[in-house]
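Table S5 (text form). Sequence records supplied for joint modeling of the four-component complex.
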Amino acid sequence: MKKYLAVLGKCPLFYGIKEDELLRMLGCLGAKTEFFDKKYTVFAEGARAKYIGIVLSGSVQITQVDFYGNRSILSVIGAGQVFAEAFACAEVEEMPVSVVANEPSEIMLLECAHVLHTCGNHCAFHRQLIFNLMKDLATKTITFHKKIDITSKRTTREKLMAYLMHEAKRAGSNSFDIPFDRQELADYLEVERSGLSAEIGKLQKEGVLESRKKHFTLL
Amino acid sequence: MKKYLAVLGKCPLFYGIKEDELLRMLGCLGAKTEFFDKKYTVFAEGARAKYIGIVLSGSVQITQVDFYGNRSILSVIGAGQVFAEAFACAEVEEMPVSVVANEPSEIMLLECAHVLHTCGNHCAFHRQLIFNLMKDLATKTITFHKKIDITSKRTTREKLMAYLMHEAKRAGSNSFDIPFDRQELADYLEVERSGLSAEIGKLQKEGVLESRKKHFTLL
DNA sequence: CTCCGTTTGTTGAAAATTCAACATATTTTC
DNA sequence: GAAAATATGTTGAATTTTCAACAAACGGAG
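The corresponding structure-token record, covering 438 residues in total, follows.
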């Protein structure tokens, strides 16, 4: 587990926990790691939510596919970030989403039951862990507010611009990369890919933005 | 504070905390209560997130209004439920939403800083409080998943049906009341009120459902 | 009971999205 | 480096939503 310390140190779940304690905790938490190639499923919709996931390298997408095959991307989780924690903590029977590797990714899984209920050892740190988990969940909720803020707009153009503004703000620059290709961006914004492409074209002609693949610049 | 014990006992935030302890805690948490008439603002968008709110009676709506005046309703919070906890826990500078009383409502406000950081007394219960808050946040995240599941549908009809299915499931019956009037339902589903009315009319003609005001029956 | 304000339903025209199909880039693979 | 596979852009027709305006139904207040 030692080789993962650099990433885990940046994981908000382990904030304030020293490396040697962290290593011992991972044992108690039933930590195991798995490798997933691009497009492979980490958790399938409908599965029991038993594990809290941490991305050690690569990234995963949280997706939902409806009855007619429309995919909706809820979020992208990068290295050092946590996923599926809400379902695990809320102890839901069936996950309403799938988690799919976005690229070759190493994933750490923690036994949720071990995270929620202290095992008798290391209790001081366990307390910190719970506190961190709470903060993480609060942050996640805000991520969803952001997504709803974007997708509640009524037109493709407004959704796109709202999204790009958020990304520019996050990047701290009007020039930035997004983690989506066109189809994925459409699935995140909940619009048609073709309409999205057309809108990006128009906005470029109008001089509002420039884009080449995943790189965007707001003008 | 005694008169609120019945509601607070049902509040997930205080699960597992005895009444006498609860009363003492409320002091430490800086609890105060306020009354809001229908349509009055509890928290305004842009305000600093200092308080965790609890609905003692009545209900509140979490809403967002965009640049062009389109209102989006994120959720409705009823008696015994908690709101604004995510912003308080994540310590955001500006609330991205407003909280508005849906009917005459009594609201309890807790100082967030007192909830997050133990004050020296009652630590055993404070720990339980943090744990409860974590569970609550996990549940909230799932509520947002539900909303995204609904609003990611592409047509008014699909959004409406997805919403009604969820409500029927929650009610455990195909006949149930919803907490929205037509305009509010439209703002929750992120669609036009007139289009929504038309769609409800069509679905009734088709024999898919019956509705009178806030009461719906799926056939 | 009647008046008045609010909510809900209805309509038609304008605007936007979806859908399917294809052209063109771009990337991957061998 | 060529072929195959994937991603992106483009188009027009059909569908759907939005918008504005008005009619009808409903609910209180007096």
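Note: Residues 154-155, 181-183, 193-194, 197-198, 200-201, 213 of chain B lie near DNA strand C (CB under 10 Å from a C1').
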